[in-house]
Amino acid sequence: MIQVGIMGGTFDPIHYGHLLAAESAREACGLDEVWFIPAAVPPLKEHAPQASAEERLEMVYRAIDFQPYFRAMDIELERGGTSYTIDTVKSLRELYPGREFSFIIGSDRVNDLAEWHRIDELAELASFIAVERPGVEMDPSHLPPGVRERLKRCEMPLLGISSTDIRERRQQGRSIRFMVPDKVYQFIKRNELYGS
Asked: How far is Cα 195 from Cα 87, in angstroms, rounded to an integer?
């Protein structure tokens, strides 16, 4: 069975923290591949992405083009609307039989995992890999037992980079160089993304 990790999110923009989380999960959990899936409309985010779906997908392609076991998938962008993980996992299992899926999440997402749409059903279809995030305590004790049993912890070097911080820095005219891969940096600059 091919082991596939799913990195979902807005990737607004993708940054080195995302790549480090994916690589840490791949190595720690023996994943064969990690698929990056930008969300069309994330259900648990207060604000819509600032970059368009096409721009966010293009940044993902640019960020991972050097890595043979990373793939970008546009399944949620093609479907449109609110990106519920359960729908994505069901579609992936139909389209790609012979694969076992694990959803890679930050430790901050563990704390709201119980709120995910149809979480009990999702836990039957995929497992979860929780990677450490700086300054966030992970408390899986409140999760339903079926979800808690499907949760693996994964250590990664702590890297205090967030998409929110990157957008704020751009709005303030501050540098984001070395926070994102160079091809993403050039794309953001050329397309004047996240500026004031």
From this structure: 34
